[in-house]
Amino acid sequence: MLKKSLYTVLVFSRLNTRRFFRDRLAIFFGVLFPLIFLFVFGGISGGNGKNISFRIALLNQSSSAFGRQFDAQLTASHTFKVDKTVTSLSAAKDKMGNSQLDATIILPPGFGDIKAGQSYPSGNAQVVYTQDNASAGQTLTTVLQGEFNQINSKFVRHQEPFAAIAKPLNVKSLTQFDYTFAGLLGFSIIGLGIFGPVNVFPELKKQGILRRLHTTPLKVWQYFVSTMISQAIIGLVSLSIMFAVAITVFHLKVVGNYIEIIPYLILSIIAILGIGLAIGGWAKNERQAAPLANIIVFPMMFLSGTFFPRFLMPHWLQVVSNYLPLTPVIDGVRLLVTEGKHLTDIGPQLGLLGIWLIVIYLIAFRVFRWE
Amino acid sequence: MNQPILKVKGLSKIYDGRAAVDNISFTVQKGEVFGILGPNGAGKTTTLEMIETMRPMDGGSITVNGLDVAKQEDAVKRIIGVQPQAPAFQDKTKLTEIIELFAAAYGEKVDALQLLKDVQLDEKANSFAENLSGGQRQRLSIATALVHKPQVFFMDEPTTGLDPQARRNLWDLVREIRDRGVTVLITTHYMEEAELLCDRVAIMDGGKIIALDTPKKLVRQLLSKGFKKEQDVEQANLEDVFIDLTGKGLRD
After folding, report:
1. Is B88 close to A18, i.e. CB distance below 8 A?
2. Three-class SS of residue B33?
3. Cα separations (Å) of A42 from A178, B161, B218?
């Protein structure tokens, strides 16, 4: 009897999986769509701050040798992208006004001249920026000051009584992409697990396909388990592609062990799928399913750290979002994948996800309707 | 052969305070084709759905081959086959896979191709269900309903919307199924279909059975009341002309 029940489950999950890979629209939303997000967000956070550059105009009004040298140095630098077409302050103001430039550096007349009684050149460079670009302007000033400090120390030797010395630890810290990637995996899991069933079930009900199945001895649990299996397979394919892209294109370093990562991903996929099964299984039609799905998915997506890390949120919001079902998914994946933690280290995430899994499926079984 | 396989006693269903099915009783014998006739809204489909375990009954009892529909839902499902009014199937699924799927729902493995051959769909075995015509979809639906060799087969208005060729083909199919010893319960609002196919018919109106007998006897009863058609009946009608001109061959 049990063997027959399992045969039912296996056939349903096999045909379900096959069906997914024949459906171009499903493949687009399940596999390609998250990949597009990966490229967009990976592109934004790519380089981890090493590639930060300022678009500036450089107005060199000095005639000193030092001024010319400094001009050349800035132009050659990677940190500054000098717009050579700008030659007047008014043109620079225009371009700063519509955000084509971050700031303007002015080397005033007399900059770099050697004043009487001194043996080295001196002068003040001006950093001009608009109010809206204040943070870029201030950062630029600091960067420029850093450059000057290095130059100054070559001209004037003096002993500094106190200094801060940077001592980098040999420990890998998280880059922004690590957060982005874990969040995007969460996004992908939601897309497949929630929007999949929420779109499919009302359609199956409308056409009476579920109702026809209900005239057979098929049980809800068999239907659910077969959906879990096929979604786990589809999900793993989709996530593997994301891993491959993240590793090859965005230089993601997977510190963790795949033998631990994969089961955790499967658990995550199945837990989140339960939300989709509950909504889609309950809803009689699209008009019930879509709004409910949006009410549940969007807050969860933003609060659980899908698109930006949770540590940027106010404390109280972090406390609340801690307990959402997607949070242990994203946190757990990040801890396993990029922080090299083990399943034994992420007890809180495993526990919370386990509790959600039980709660979600209790609800899903209870509210399921065949028509 | 008089061996009852389906017994319906005092069956009722209330929708919004109105009796959609009002205290009806009938018995279907093993191996017969039993028709439920009636205009739209007479309660045919509701009756069928209660027998199929799909709707809870508000009164009365039903047994199928001695099994109580209210209490032994699962066992009943295993001996009945169901053909819904408008059969639909998941898209991007081959016909053989659909057969396989329905068989699996009963925990069984079947020869999908043979079952498709039985309903003349073997040539379409590798097509997707969404590419079938109306008549082909009905035939596929019949094949899926027979995967577990049911004892009683329920068909809800199977020929509605089909062209005359497809309808005749379906009638032949129903006779074949009956010849295999399967009891068939069919609803329709085409009288000539009932007359040709059914051993006995129940006529429903307003949730009640208002007549139950063989088609011949029902006609005789009417004639004995002195009924006369206004015109002499021709030896053929327009449908006979249509079939004569276009042939009986299936068009889909």
Report:
1. no
2. strand
3. 10, 55, 78
User: Residue A308's pLDDT band (boundaries 50, 70, 90)?
Assistant: confident
3-state class (DSSP) for residue B200: strand
Q: What is the pLDDT of residue A49?
A: 45
Between these two residues, B1 and B92, which has the higher pLDDT value? Answer: B92
Candidates B90, B93, B156: best to mutate against A (most CBs of A within 10 A) is: B90
Q: Is the pLDDT of residue A45 over 70?
A: no
| ipTM given for this complex | 0.88
One-letter amino acid for residue B225 of the chain:
K
Q: Which two tokens stand for residue A67?
A: 């001024």
pLDDT tens string A67-114:
888 888 888 877 788 888 888 888 888 888 887 888 888 988 888 888
Give the span between the Cα atoms of B36 and B123, in whole angstroms.
33
What average pLDDT is seen over chain A?
A: 87
- Identify residues of B whose CB sits under 8 angstroms from chain A CBs: 52-54, 74, 77-78, 80, 82, 84, 86-93, 97, 100-102, 104-109, 144, 148
Is the pLDDT at B60 greater than 70, yes or no? Answer: yes
Yes or no: say if A48 and A177 are a contact pair by the CB < 8 Å rule: yes
CB contact under 8 Å between B107 and A7, yes or no, is yes
Please, what is the average pLDDT of chain B? 90
> Which burial class, exposed, middle or buried, applies to B247 when counting CB atoms under 10 A from its CB (0-12, 13-18, 19+)?
exposed
Mark yes or no for CB contact B107/A23 under 8 Å: no
Residues of A with CB under 8 A from a CB of B: 4-5, 7-8, 10-12, 15, 18-19, 22-23, 204, 207-209, 211-218
Percent share of chain B, pLDDT over 70:
98
**pLDDT tens-digit profile of A338-362?**
888 999 999 999 999 999 999 999 9
- Residue of B106, B131, B185 best to disrupt the A interface, most CBs of A under 10 A: B106
In angstroms, the CA B1 to CA B249 distance is: 34
Using CB atoms, which residue from A7, A10, A215 is nearest to B52? A215
- Report whether pLDDT(A332) > 80: yes
